[in-house]
Automatic annotation (TrEMBL):
Organism of provenance: Candidula unifasciata
Gene Ontology terms for molecular function: GTP binding; GTPase activity; metal ion binding
Keyword Nuclease belongs to the record: no
Keyword terms, alphabetized: GTP-binding, Magnesium, Metal-binding, Nucleotide-binding
A Pfam family annotated for this UniProt entry: Arf
Family label: Belongs to the small GTPase superfamily. Arf family.
Record-listed GTP binding positions: 6-13, 60, 114-117
The protein's name: ADP-ribosylation factor-like protein 16
Organism superkingdom: Eukaryota
UniProt key word Ligase: no
Length: 176
């Protein structure tokens, strides 16, 4: 199971709906309708090569209990909304808490910078300096990948699908 977390309204449910559509290159700009996730949202996506992969979104409002799911997660996706300048500090603390947790020390982590389609959003370098992301990555025990995406336009979603698929393959090879 891959765990998907991040503050409320960053676009986690939209991403899952996009990933459930196997043809990512045909994404239209209309965003799928969503409501805030109260609790958890467990979905199976059929990714590359028709592999079925389970992802569990934890709603942003569930932040205090995310840690209950770290033990069963073999990889973690953490999502940030680049258009919400005031949320960066919260995101940074949440990400550092995840990385410091004893159950996450060997998992791979994907940091998604979502909503890059919004014109006034922070650039990756602005965000990196605000969050000291390079330092966070250097000090972490986990392998961390950062991707700039838009669940709206579909930008880089095929890279997310590839990462999800690679994590699943890794998990399968460990299990056998
Ligand atoms: N412009 C833009 N809006 C987006 C994008 N992704 C999501 N949204 C919008 O962001 C809002 C929240 O999306 P959700 O997917 O419900 O957010 P969430 O992270 O699941 O929120 P919680 O379940 O409350 O934790 C919706 O109005 C989406 O239409 C994006 O890439 N670009
Ligand atoms: Mg949601």
């Amino acid at each position: 199971m891959i765990l998907l977390v991040g503050p409320t309204s960053v676009g986690k449910t939209c991403l899952l709906k996009r990933l459930q559509n196997p043809n990512l290159s045909s994404v239209k700009e209309d965003l799928p309708a969503t409501v805030p996730t109260v609790g958890t949202n467990l979905v199976t996506v059929t990714s590359l090569k028709k592999t079925e992969i389970t992802l569990r979104e934890m709603g942003g409002a569930m932040g205090p209990i995310w840690h209950n799911y770290y033990k069963e997660a073999h990889a973690i996706i953490f999502m940030i909304d680049v258009s919400r300048h005031t949320q960066v500090a919260v995101s940074c603390v949440q990400l550092m808490n995840i990385l410091a947790h004893p159950f996450t020390q060997t998992v791979c982590v994907l940091v998604l910078l979502n909503k890059t389609d919004i014109p006034n959003g922070m650039t990756r370098s602005e965000l990196e300096s605000l969050m000291r992301l390079d330092e966070v990555i250097r000090c972490a025990t986990q392998k961390i990948t950062v991707l700039e995406i838009s669940a709206k336009t579909g930008h880089n979603l095929e890279k997310v699908a590839r990462w999800v698929y690679d994590q699943n393959k890794l998990e399968e090879s460990i299990a056998t």
